[in-house]
Design goal:
The complex is a heterodimer of chains A (about 260) and B (about 160). Chain A has helices at about 10-15, 25-35, 35-60, 70-75, 80-95, 110-125, 140-155, 240-255; strands at about 135-140, 170-175, 180-190, 195-200, 210-215, 215-225, 225-235. By secondary structure, chain A is of the alpha+beta class. The longest helix of chain A is centred in the N-terminal third of the chain and has 26 residues, at about 35-60. Chain B has a single domain, classed as Butyryl-CoA Dehydrogenase, subunit A, domain 3, CATH 1.20.140. Chain B is built from seven helices and no strands. Classes of the chains: A alpha+beta (about 260), B mainly alpha (about 160). Chains A and B meet through helix 1, helix 3 and helix 6 of A and helix 1, helix 2, helix 3, helix 4 and helix 5 of B.
Chain lengths: ~260, ~160
């Protein structure tokens, strides 16, 4: 039999509300609450808080589970899943349904992915207009460029070969990224259209490719195993942007970095 | 018949609910759940038994801590409360609870949600967070105190009764 005069502690009030209180103490707590209105008020407030949380979030557990969380898809080697999602997004992107968000008219909740992509687009817009100094190390010094950037960003940088897309490597530079230093590579066609690839470590686990547009530039973003990639280029030819992004993706996938 | 996978699948709705309350961002929440599920499926061979439910909550809680750490370095955007579709009570109430949750530090928010929303025991939460039960209790006390203050619009004055 419990000593009736042991005062009830705050921990016991919490335990009482959370059904964690030993049965023999319940009576003592209820007696205490009957004579301590301030504590009774806290218990009431905590219960109301719990009700509000349930009212607000229980519905999520009743939602149909989205396709992206289907286990048989997730259990397959992650590679194929990413590519499937990207291919689907690219197809939607080409059909005119962006499946992404606008750079300055956020339609979905913003995230660190956006910060990353905005920085990449800013860099793209800043450097593609440069005639004399678009890059710091020229593409003619490819080996040196790759070695330098790999060392600074902390993973292997291999500049994709985009000859098949009619693009030659202008060169690259190092930039401060939102989470870690970023490698920035620029490509150019004989007609002067320029594409840039911005890559750095990214903490977000995003596995779908997203598209963002700003003024006359478009960018496709994806991340894979802790590394983010943004391919930026002119937005007037979505086929072209998709083709280049796909070529970059295929090669970074092969290189594993 | 793969009972491990079936058990993981059965947990998805609860994990989505917990992730949604933790992040208050639909996309970030499902990103977290997807990443947690991938890790869980990859670790099937390493899961030698014990509480699958706690294990999954642990993965998700840790993934969110990592996400928060990287967000903290570039606070351009605060997560917006997602719309309170289908919730009972007024919309103002729904926004209040999400806003109040946003005022908590990560560990306090996780404890509050694991206790009240997910119904886990103090002992289970101590294992999930890797701390003694006493630490869980003090996080819970602070969480409830700060939530009350946020919901009432007052400053909290908390003293633990010894």
């Amino acid at each position: 039999m419990t000593e009736p005069n042991i005062p009830v502690t705050e921990d016991e009030l919490h335990a009482y509300v959370d059904d964690e209180l030993p049965a023999e103490r319940r009576g003592d707590v209820e007696a205490w609450l009957a004579t301590h209105p301030a504590d009774a008020e806290r218990v009431r407030a905590w219960r109301a808080m719990a009700e509000a949380l349930h009212a607000r979030y229980d519905a999520v557990a009743d939602e149909p589970v989205p396709q992206r969380l289907a286990l048989d898809r997730l259990a397959r080697p992650q590679r194929r899943v990413i590519y499937g999602a990207i291919a689907a997004t690219l197809a939607a992107f080409l059909a005119g349904g962006a499946g992404g968000w606008l750079a300055h008219g956020v339609s979905t909740a913003p995230s660190s992915l956006q910060a990353f992509t905005f920085d990449a687009l800013e860099a793209h817009r800043l450097y593609v207009v440069e005639v004399r100094h678009p890059v710091e190390v020229a593409g003619s010094e490819r080996a040196h460029l790759q070695q330098w950037l790999s060392r600074r960003v902390g993973y292997t940088i291999k500049a994709p070969e985009l000859d098949a897309a009619g693009l030659k490597l202008v060169g690259g530079r190092l930039l401060p990224g939102p989470h870690a230093p970023a490698a920035f590579l620029m490509y150019e066609s004989p007609t002067g259209e320029r594409f840039t690839l911005y890559t750095s470590r990214a903490a977000t686990p995003a596995t779908q490719m997203r598209y963002v547009t700003r003024a006359s530039d478009g960018a496709l973003y994806w991340s894979d195993r802790g590394v983010g990639y943004v391919l930026s280029g002119p937005d007037d030819n979505k086929d072209r942007l998709q083709q280049v992004a796909r070529a970059v993706y295929d090669q970074t996938e092969k290189n594993g970095g | 018949m793969n009972t491990f996978r079936d058990s993981v699948e059965a947990m998805i709705p609860a994990l989505r609910r917990y992730a949604r309350a933790l992040t208050r961002d639909v996309d970030a929440a499902d990103d977290l759940v997807q990443d947690a599920l991938v890790r869980a499926l990859r670790s099937e061979r390493l899961f030698i038994g014990g509480d699958l439910r706690s294990w999954l909550y642990t993965i998700l809680t840790n993934l969110n801590r990592n996400r928060r750490r990287s967000l903290a370095r570039k606070p351009l955007f605060a997560p917006l409360p997602d719309s309170a579709a289908g919730a009972s009570g007024t919309e103002a109430e729904a926004c209040d609870i999400a806003r109040a949750l946003a005022t908590l530090v990560e560990d306090q928010r996780a404890v509050l949600l694991l206790v009240t929303l997910e119904g886990l025991s103090y002992r289970e939460i101590a294992e999930i967070q890797g701390v003694p039960i006493g630490t869980v209790m003090s996080r819970l006390a602070r969480a409830r105190s700060h939530m009350r203050a946020a919901l009432d619009g007052e400053r909290p004055t908390l003293r633990r009764i010894k």
